[in-house]
Each structure stands twice: as structure tokens, then as C-alpha cells.
Amino acid sequence: MFFYIDKCILILYNHNMRIFLFVINGLGVGSLPDYSKYDSEYECTAEQVKCIQKATILKKMGLFKCCLQEDNTPALGHFLRGRMLTTKTNFECGFKEILGNVVFDDDNSIAENLIDTLKKHNVDVVCFSSNSDCTEADKICESDREIAYLLSEFKSEKDSVLIAEFNDFAKFALSGNKDKMEDAILFVNDFLASVIGELKYDDVLIASGNFGVNPSKIGITREYNPIFVCSKLLGTSQSLKTIQGNNCIAMSVVELLKIYPNSNSFVGSKLRQKIDNYGVLLKNEIIASRFEKHTDFKIGEEKQKTVKTSKKRFVKDKKN
């Protein structure tokens, strides 16, 4: 249904929210103060692993801004850094902390699992991982390509959260295979581009790193993790914040879905207000044009062709 108001097209529609929650293992943006527990030298995976320079979408999302590089170019959405794990946590892994026991409700001291909490509130949830040690996934995939294929096939008529742990980059780094490392990070980069090109107005992409890697010494490094939040309602941003504990990601997910309002969420009041009013949008709103300007995708036929091409590639790779 369309209404014309002062040459602007007012769109009324009812679309369920989709939240894409992706974690890229091995993608660190600088050593934490306690790095000596893991390594005696300063490490920044994003800067020291040269193939990451080719990851154009990650760069546009603010990856090197998270490394504190001087860059006046607006990022594609909001970008943050995660600092350490949550105080007094038993978790050693950021992915487990995101999905682990979190006190979401400020009025209730009971710790809850993110996936269980979402399902309890009638949200469709899927979780895929290419990390064989992951215990939270619905399916352990052979590779990041299989994850991409499964995500591209997912359909839901309700609010949904699509969770993925991409582990190939870290896996190949920890085996010293730099060529496959490059293939892995560039594949994830291209998949992020496809997802961004498909985002609707009330969809949100949250992508994060986890630990860092040092392929020269073949080991894990303790680093800040980048956190990116992309939405057509956000526009672009030059802000950088550092948050304490990766459970802020889980708390932001439940706030976006209006399950629990939470003071530890990094969802800003402006985004919250826009999401509350998502049913009435101006097609030529300036934030939409800014969003498209900083990606290689457009709303409409051109974007759809790109997404279809990517999807066929995932199907082909799956068969092989």
C-alpha cells in the first residue's frame, strides 16, 4: 500500500524482524591489557594478517577503526570493541559467553541462556557453527560455506535470530595455512556483503570477532573483539565505544526484540525509536541513501540479482 505525501512515498508494511548474529573466530583488533597471559608480544590480527586488507566490506564496517587507525571515512553502521569477558564469568570463549547464562531481566536475578530465552518468547532461532568444539549449535558444519548455504535456505514467518560461528579463518591460522586463511576471511567478507545487500528496514546484522590468532607462531592471542551493528535504520557512524563483556551482545538482542529492556544493551535510543516506528518509513529517507552509498548493493532489482548469484554459488559449493 502506497501513499504520496509531498513527493515522498510512504510505505506501510508489516515485516517480522530478523537479527543476524555472526561471530568470526580469530578476528581480533589489538591485545588486551592482560595479553601477557597468552603472549609476551603485542598482537593485532586485523593489522598483521595481510590478507584482511582485501576484506572490503569488513573495512567499510569499521574493522580498522576498531584497531584505532586514523580514518575519517564513515563506517557502515555502528562499530564497537569488546573488552575482556564479563566480570566473574566462567567462560573462556566469547561465543559461549554470548549464548551462555546471562541475567537479562533487571528485575530478576535468574541467569538464562540466550537461545532458550528467545524460543520461550516465540522467536525462531537457528544456530550453526563450523567449530567442532561448539556445543550450542543445531548443526556442526564442515565449513563456513555450509553455514552460508544453510542460512540462505532459512525462512520464517516470525521474528527470528540467525546465529553463526564462522571458524575456518581461525582453524587455518592455527594450522599455519595462510592461503586457506585468506580464502576463509574473504569468503566471510563476501557473505557479509550478501547479507547486507538483503537487509530490510527492520533487520539488524550484528557481527563480531572473538579471540585473535598469530599464524606465524600458530597460537591464539588475547585481543579486543570488533563488534559491528548494521541496519538501514542506523545509517553511518564515526563513533567508537569499548564495551565490557560480550554478554552485551546477547542483551542487545533481547532488547531489539522487546523481550527485556536492559541497561547493558548497546542499542541506542535513536535506533530503538526508529525500530518502534518501523511500520511507517519514507522510501527516500536520507539514511537509506547513505547506507547504499557505502555498500556495493542497491535496493531493488540489482540487489536481488546479486543475492541470487551468491545463493547459487553456495548451492554449488554444497554439492561439491
Summarize the structure.
The radius of gyration is 19 Å and the shape is globular.
Description:
- The model is unreliable at about 1-15, about 85-90 and about 280-320 (pLDDT under 50).
- Strands 3, 4, 7, 8, 9, 10, 11, 12 and 13 form a nine-stranded mixed beta sheet that branches.
- A hairpin with a 2-residue loop joins strand 1 (about 1-5) and strand 2.
- Helix 6 (about 145-155) packs across helix 12 and helix 8 packs across helix 12 (about 300-320).
- The protein has helices at about 45-50, 55-60, 65, 95-100, 115-120, 145-155, 170-175, 180-200, 245-255, 270-275, 285-295, 300-320; strands spanning about 1-5, 10, 20-25, 80-85, 100, 110-115, 125-130, 140, 160-165, 205-215, 220, 225-230, 240-245, 280.
- It has about 325 residues and is α/β, with parallel strands linked by helices.
- It starts with a strand and ends with a helix.
- Helices cover about 35% and strands about 20% of the residues.
- The protein has twelve helices and 14 strands.
Write the layout of secondary structure elements.
Layout: E1 2-5, E2 8-12, E3 18-26, H1 45-48, H2 56-61, H3 63-66, E4 78-83, H4 94-99, E5 101-102, E6 112-113, H5 114-120, E7 124-129, E8 139-140, H6 144-153, E9 160-166, H7 168-173, H8 178-198, E10 204-214, E11 219-221, E12 225-230, E13 240-244, H9 247-256, H10 269-276, E14 280-282, H11 286-293, H12 301-319
Parallel strand pairs: 3-9, 3-10, 4-13, 7-8, 7-9
Antiparallel strand pairs: 1-2, 2-14, 4-12, 5-6, 10-11, 10-12
Helix pairs in contact: 6-12, 8-12
